[in-house]
Structure formats: structure tokens, C-alpha cells
Amino acid sequence: MKKSFLWLTKISGLVLLLGGTVQAQTTPKPPDSAKPSLTVTVTTPQTVNLAQKINANGSLAAWQEAIIGAEANGLKITEVRVNVGDRVQRGDVLAVLQADSLRAELAQAEGTLAEAAASAQEAKAQAERARSLQQQGFFSNAQLSQALAAEASAVARVQSARALVQLQNVRLSQTQVRAPDAGVISARQATVGSVVGAGVELFRLIRQGRIEWRAEVTASEIGRIQVGAPAQIKAASGQVLQGKVRVVAPAVDAQTRNAIVYVDLPAAIGSARAGMYAQGEISLGQSQALTVPQTAVVVRDGFSYVYTVGADQKVSQLKVQTGRQNADRVEVTRGLQADARVVASGGAFLNHGDTVRVVDAPAAQAAPAATAVK
After folding, report:
1. Where are the domains of the chain?
2. Tens-digit pLDDT profile for residues 272-289
3. pTM of the prediction?
């Protein structure tokens, strides 16, 4: 009897246990969608003044490059005083040519001038005597005219000889090749011992050491660029330079359909060199823009999105177009209202239609901006 009672007791407990289990399985659970999936902070777009800029690429080039050659013909170089990279001042001697033959020609011209001056002095004395004798009736008018003509010829020979001396002095001065302006020697072809002809290039000089940035811009951007606009350039060497627009090319290249903008750079160019590739920005002033925090923009499949929170605490995914950036804010050019409640951060963890819990910004600073609700 006792064994039968124990078995009945165990069977009753098992039935009760199974009954409790079935009851627990059939109790309805609240839907998960009723709970917020994330805690977020929201912000509203702000209208701020942002700088307008045009990004451009181009090359650094010499502002003006002077080609310096010899003016004298057929003379040998006896001395070269500068090399590539040297800074020179206006009038500095860059090279010296052989001047022995020119000095001899100058001495000959000076002798001719002295001889002509002596002849002119004698002709003048003869003319004075002819005038005196003609007044006394000893010379005819024809003889007086001959004496005066001889005097005039002698004076003309003196002037010609004096001009020849000046010419030889000029040719002698041309044996010293001088810098036409201050600047930096960028190329040198002169070598000691070589015989040069008139006009042959000996040196190249970057005038005043100035270089410029020749930026290529599209035809649609030409009208927006003003002379004097500031520009910031980063050379291939890594140096950052500040400049100003000097002139915008009056014509567009027929092949590339681009125009050249000439930007003046400071004389102290540092590591930047003519011929380098450079990237830069040309400032166009400022304009108002509707901006949101950079963390509020989510990029998916190549498109930009923001998430806004409605009155029912549900988020909506909006496709937007972005523009300029300034520090941690991004301009939204299309797709967003100025009074929208935008999720400040954590949008990458949201989907359209999710329910969220909104907290104030100070609380969000103490904790992560978007955290999972436990």
C-alpha cells in the first residue's frame, strides 16, 4: 500500500509539472517591436557661413624666365662666375668674354679720333684766315667757300671718329655678361673656353625668384574666380603656400576645354620648385549653408543618408546630397528640412522604421551617442 501511494504521488507531481510547463508556453509574450532598439540624441540642422572654394590642379612655373645670351659675336668665354641655383642681383657679372681684340680696336678708334680732332683744328684755323683775307679782298668768295667746306668736313670726321670710339666702348662692355634683373639662375650653358655667337643662350634666370601656380579650371568655373582671390596650394614636396590670383586666362584651351588661372606665390618658396605638380584651393568667399554633424551622415551603397525622428519616436531614412565640409559639420544641399530632428550619431545601426529612445544632449555626452537598450 505504501509503494502504491508513492507512485501515485510521483505521477501526480509529474502531471502538475507538465501542466505548469504547458501553461508557461501558452502565455502570450509582448512583441519586441514595442521596445526601442537604440538610445539616440537628436539635433536640428544649423545654418552657418561656409567658405566657397574651387579645387584645382596645376603646375608650378617661373613667373618670368629671362634668357641671357652674349651680345658680342665670336668671342671666347674666359670666366663663368655663377652656377645653377645662385641668387644674383641686377647688374651682377655672370660671365666674362675675351676682350683683347676689342681693346685693340678701341685704341685704334681713339687714335683715329685724335687724328680727326687735329685735322679739324687745322681746318678751323684755315677757315678763320680765309674769312680775314676775303674781307681784305685777297680771297674770292669761291676760295672762302672751299675753306669753310673743309672745316665742316673735318668736324664731321671728328664726330664719326667719336661715334666709333663709343661703339668700341659698347662692344668692350659686352664682354661682361650681366644679369638683367635680380633672381635665381635656373639653367647654365656657358663653359669656359667655348666661343659663343651673338644671341646664343648662356643662362636662364627666374626673375626676382618668383614662381606661380598655373591652375587648370573648367569653363563653368571661370566666371566665379576674381582677381585677387586668395588661394592655398600644396606642392608635391609637401610645402603649403599661400597665394593670390593674378589673372585669369582670357581664352579656354580648345582641346581640354580648361582655362589657366595664374596665382602669384611668395618669393620665399622653400622646397617648392618650378615644374612641380601642385594641388590647391581657390577661395570664392562665403555663403550660408544648412549643415548637420558629420557623424549624422551615413554612406550606404555610394549614397548619403540621414535619419530623422518623428513624433512617434520612429526613425525615417532620408537620402540627401552633401556639399562642403567645415571641421565636424557637413553641408546638406538637398533632401532635408531645416526643422527636422536628425539623429546625431549611430545611424549606421538603425533601419527605417526603428523605434528609438531620445535622450538629451548632455546625457549623450556622458554616454555613447547611440547604445543598445538592454
Report:
1. 34-50+288-372, 55-64+210-285, 67-98+175-209, 99-174
2. 888 899 999 998 888 888
3. 0.61
